[in-house]
């Protein structure tokens, strides 16, 4: 597709990920060779700094600067960590890279080891990705046997080896300090930064943590030069970003676009538009930490800074598209439910505050909300953002705050009109039989799981609202469109 | 809690696992992963053995087990059913599918049917968002599942 450029994904689906020869044939390990033989660590770091590459794991911290900080700390042992936890529900970019091009991650981590002075690398990967683990193990075996990993790499005397560590299903472990504690065999609870991992990380040693996609950009930057890389993208966000397009869009899947591409291009040109010709309502970026972009953001170039200005964030690259059938209050509640479940519980603003946010949203979706509750959501959300210990709590109110900002009318309708325009919030709906369409076939009554429908054969049926659990079975079954939602 | 007797063979296997990680406390999570694949779950008895082998307190092991959602102290069903409630699946109606499973199996999320056949759990994104909503039964993935398809899936395992 015209608008896409493949940098991080350049080998995915093109090479056989289980054959190192395929990777080498596409310039694989060429960057490592030139780094080890021709370039000083400082020179490599300089290239990265000039390239403008920023972390793809969410924070967007400049990669070159992180490498330099880690390099400048004096220690007897340092570590390189690849963050492959990918916890954002709806995102699978990192998985595709690990499964489709595992060597690129190994090569980049080794280069990182050379630059920072680390001799050990660790890949922290979620347990839900068994194929990626297999591919990584295969790749590690191959590169070791070819002298590209392990002792005396390429005969240069440089030693570097990589181990795999498994996640165990905790979203917060994607946060780098929590990730480090998890690798140490502890509960994955974050700690206050500073000290940053680059200064004091795994086993208290300097640890350079980068995301999978960040690493996937490194070798090609070295091969093609920083000028090439920095010519792509916007002023402060260089290169490309991989997004996992999902939701109510025709073409779901991974895309890689230059930074600065607009949401309109992503949705309508690459994504093929909204399913069933419905109207676009919002797109959520940054997963549970992000916010929603709306019609008014369709022509905003997507980059780190613009997304933050719009009340969202880049996140790891999940991009969920919502249409007119999605209720924004319910969406906010969905994300909050996730946060409440995933909060590690260490600090009270996040542990208790998010629970209260969730309860307020529940109250509103059940039709019991007041205007005061909307103010409470806003105030509490702001406090949680300002006072939480880690990035999870600091960003968890974003879905609520951004939906209130962008769709105030939907909140108002739920509260004052007791109405959900998207017909999602069950408590605000009534299933009704339309008398002049009902022919009395009894199909609905037979399918109602709670026997809420009464009526004789060939007579208009009736739904007892006090019994109805709003499952929608009757409406799905009725062949005469005689059941409607009010 | 009723005491469970661990078979000698599995017990030995567990001790060997601990040894293969040099009985290091820092390897606790790796040990728990292996232990769960041996026993299917992590009852208190297993945690006690691990604590002893790794020279950690039982409270520490329990603290780690309960922190991570991947670890369970309840035995899974013969056919564990997991429903993805990731955003893409949610937007495409996964909640209705979950409801249908709950209704047909008469169990809640996190429970196992009385006959030990099915257990029900939720997942956060298996990375197959293109197939949303996604259901997994054991290792098998079902894509674009609708509430109507639930019956068919269950009947595959029901004889
Ligand atoms: C709650 C939370 C979850 C995170 N999850 C991930 C993740 O799944 N993958 C990731 O690479 N970074 C994640 N991060 C960001 C990491 O803390 C860290 O910034 C990143 O791994 C650094 O790499 P980068 O600079 O290459 O992006 C998360 C942060 C927070 C606060
Ligand atoms: S903000 Fe939430 S996830 Fe982060 S440390 Fe506090 S309780 Fe834990
Ligand atoms: S929505 Fe469900 S519970 Fe309500 S009347 Fe229809 S079938 Fe019965």
Give a structural overview:
The complex is a heterodimer of chains A (486) and B (159). Chain A has 486 residues and is α/β, with parallel strands linked by helices. Chain A has 20 helices and 14 strands. Chain A has 4 domains: 20-224, Rossmann fold (3-Layer(aba) Sandwich); 240-323, Ubiquitin-like (UB roll); 328-417, Up-down Bundle (de novo design (two linked rop proteins)); 430-485, Alpha-Beta Plaits (2-Layer Sandwich). Chain A has helices at 20-25, 30-38, 41-51, 63-72, 93-100, 102-116, 130-145, 176-183, 212-224, 226-230, 263-270, 304-309, 328-342, 348-365, 371-387, 391-395, 398-406, 408-417, 443-447, 473-477, and strands at residues 79-84, 120-125, 150-153, 158-166, 207-211, 240-247, 253-258, 280-285, 292-294, 318-323, 431-433, 453-454, 462-463, 483-485. In chain A, the strands form 4 sheets. Chain A has a 5-stranded mixed beta sheet. A 5-stranded mixed beta sheet of chain A has the order 7-6-10-8-9. In chain A, a hairpin with a 6-residue loop joins strand 8 (280-285) and strand 9 (292-294). The longest helix of chain A is centred in the C-terminal third of the chain and has 18 residues, at 348-365. The radius of gyration of chain A is 26 Å and the shape is elongated. The relative contact order of chain A is 0.10. Chain B has a 4-stranded mixed beta sheet with strand order 2-1-3-4, with helices on one face. Chain B has helices spanning 8-20, 28-39, 44-53, 58-67, 87-91, 94-105, 150-157, and strands spanning 79-84, 118-123, 135-137, 140-142. In chain B, strand 3 (135-137) and strand 4 (140-142) form a beta hairpin. The mean pLDDT of chain B is 90. The two termini of chain B are 33 Å apart. Chain B has 7 helices and 4 strands, in the order ααααβααβββα. Chain B folds into 2 domains: 8-67; 79-157, 3-Layer(aba) Sandwich (Glutaredoxin). In chain B, helix 1 (8-20) runs antiparallel to helix 2 and helix 1 (8-20) crosses helix 3. The chains are: A alpha/beta (486), B alpha+beta (159). The structure holds flavin mononucleotide (FMN) and iron/sulfur cluster (2 copies).
């Amino acid at each position: 597709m015209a608008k896409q450029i493949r940098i991080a994904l350049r080998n995915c689906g093109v090479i056989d990920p289980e054959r190192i020869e395929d990777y080498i044939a596409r310039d694989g390990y060429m960057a490592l060779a030139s780094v080890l033989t021709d370039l000083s660590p400082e020179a490599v770091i300089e290239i990265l700094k000039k390239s403008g590459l920023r972390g793809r794991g969410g924070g967007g911290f400049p990669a070159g600067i992180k490498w330099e900080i880690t390099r400048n700390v004096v220690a007897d042992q340092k570590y390189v960590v690849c963050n492959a936890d990918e916890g954002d529900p709806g995102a699978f970019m990192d998985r595709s890279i690990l499964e489709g091009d595992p060597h690129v991650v190994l090569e980049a981590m080794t280069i990182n080891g050379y630059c920072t002075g680390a001799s050990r690398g660790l890949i922290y990967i979620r347990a839900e990705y068994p194929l990626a683990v297999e591919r990584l193990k295969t790749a590690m075996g191959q590169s070791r046997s070819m002298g590209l990993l392990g002792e005396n790499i390429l005969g240069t005397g440089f030693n570097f080896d990589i181990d795999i560590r498994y996640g165990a299903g905790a979203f917060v472990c994607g946060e780098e300090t929590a990730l480090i504690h998890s690798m140490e065999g502890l509960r994955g609870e974050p700690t206050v930064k500073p000290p940053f991992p680059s200064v004091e990380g795994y086993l208290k040693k300097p640890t350079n943590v980068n995301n999978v996609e960040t690493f996937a950009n490194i070798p090609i930057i070295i091969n093609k030069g920083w000028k090439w890389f920095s010519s792509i993208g916007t002023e402060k966000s260089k290169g490309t970003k991989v997004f996992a397009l999902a939701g109510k869009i025709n073409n779901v899947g991974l895309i890689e676009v230059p930074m600065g591409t607009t949401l309109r291009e992503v949705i309508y040109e690459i994504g093929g538009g909204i399913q069933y010709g419905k109207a676009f309502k919002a797109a959520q970026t940054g997963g549970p930490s992000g916010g929603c972009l709306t019609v008014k953001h369709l022509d905003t170039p997507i980059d780190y800074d613009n997304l933050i200005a719009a009340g969202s964030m880049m996140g790891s690259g999940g991009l969920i598209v919502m249409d007119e059938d999605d209720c924004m209050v319910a969406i906010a509640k969905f994300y909050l439910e996730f946060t409440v479940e995933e909060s590690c519980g260490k600090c009270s603003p996040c542990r208790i505050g998010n629970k209260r946010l969730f309860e307020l949203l529940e109250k509103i979706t059940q039709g019991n909300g007041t205007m005061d509750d909307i103010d409470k959501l806003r105030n509490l959300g702001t406090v949680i953002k300002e006072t939480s210990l880690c990035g999870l709590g600091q960003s968890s109110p974003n879905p609520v705050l951004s939906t209130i900002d962008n769709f105030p009318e939907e909140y108002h309708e739920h509260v004052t009109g007791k109405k959900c325009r998207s017909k999602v919030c069950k408590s605000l709906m009534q299933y009704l039989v339309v008398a002049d369409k009902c022919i009395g076939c009894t199909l609905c009554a037979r399918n109602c799981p709670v026997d809420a429908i009464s009526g004789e054969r060939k007579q208009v049926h009736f739904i007892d609202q006090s019994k109805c659990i709003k499952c929608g079975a009757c409406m799905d079954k009725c062949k005469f469109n005689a059941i409607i939602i009010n | 809690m009723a005491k469970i007797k661990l078979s000698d063979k599995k017990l030995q296997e567990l001790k060997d696992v601990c040894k293969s990680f040099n009985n290091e406390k820092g390897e606790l999570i790796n040990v728990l992963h292996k232990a769960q694949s041996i026993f299917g779950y992590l009852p208190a008895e297993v945690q006690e053995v691990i604590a002893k082998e790794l020279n950690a307190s039982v409270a520490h092991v329990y603290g780690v087990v309960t922190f991570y959602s991947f670890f369970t102290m309840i035995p899974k069903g013969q056919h564990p059913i997991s429903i993805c409630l990731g955003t893409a699946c949610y937007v495409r109606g996964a909640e209705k599918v979950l409801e249908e499973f709950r209704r047909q199996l008469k169990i809640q999320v996190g429970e196992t049917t009385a006959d030990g056949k099915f257990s029900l759990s939720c997942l956060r994104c298996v990375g197959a968002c293109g197939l949303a909503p996604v259901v997994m039964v054991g290792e098998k993935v079902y894509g674009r599942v609708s509430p109507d398809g639930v019956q068919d899936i269950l009947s595959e395992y029901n004889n």
